[in-house]
Amino acid sequence: MGQSELPLIDLFIRLSIATGLGFLLGIERELRGKPAGLRSHMLVAMGSAAFVMVGMEILYATATGDPSARIDPTRIVEGVVGGIGFLGAGSIIQARGHIQGITTGASIWIAGAVGVASGVGNLPLAGLTAAFALVTITVLGFFEKEVLSDRDQ
């Protein structure tokens, strides 16, 4: 397993899209002053994409009979999801009886999903997931803050 089965331009595109979409998710959290912002989301998306591409390389090596590839590459996705869950949980805190950071934790999880989708080359899924997440975070966040909070007063 040495030379990549994916051309360098494909690696570049997949990592760039994952990082760029992570940027979009992270900038919203950054602008709101949340604990996990721009760099965190970018790194989670980029790392997820990289891990999945490594898994794909193992899959290609397995298909060509390379004896060094004796693992199930889908376990890499499981590991990525577990690791991201750990990061997301770390952004959730309880202070004075209120729980904070759940949306940030969820956005970190979505950044991982965007990275995984980018890594496997499903760029439309990555883009749509990021777009839906941004709409959910911004539009519904505004709705919760402005409309629902006015109702409670």
Automatic annotation (TrEMBL):
How does the record say this protein sits in the membrane?
Multi-pass membrane protein
Going by the entry's taxonomy, the superkingdom of the source organism is recorded as: Bacteria
Where exactly are the transmembrane stretches of this chain? 12-31, 43-63, 75-95, 102-119, 125-143
**Keyword set for this entry?**
Cell inner membrane, Cell membrane, Membrane, Transmembrane, Transmembrane helix
Residues in domain MgtC/SapB/SrpB/YhiD N-terminal? 15-144
The cellular location(s) given in this protein's UniProt record come to: Cell inner membrane; Cell membrane
**Main location (coarse class):** membrane
What family does the Swiss-Prot or TrEMBL record give for this protein?
Belongs to the MgtC/SapB family.
User: What name does the UniProt record give this protein?
Assistant: Protein MgtC
Q: Which organism is it from?
A: Marinobacter zhanjiangensis
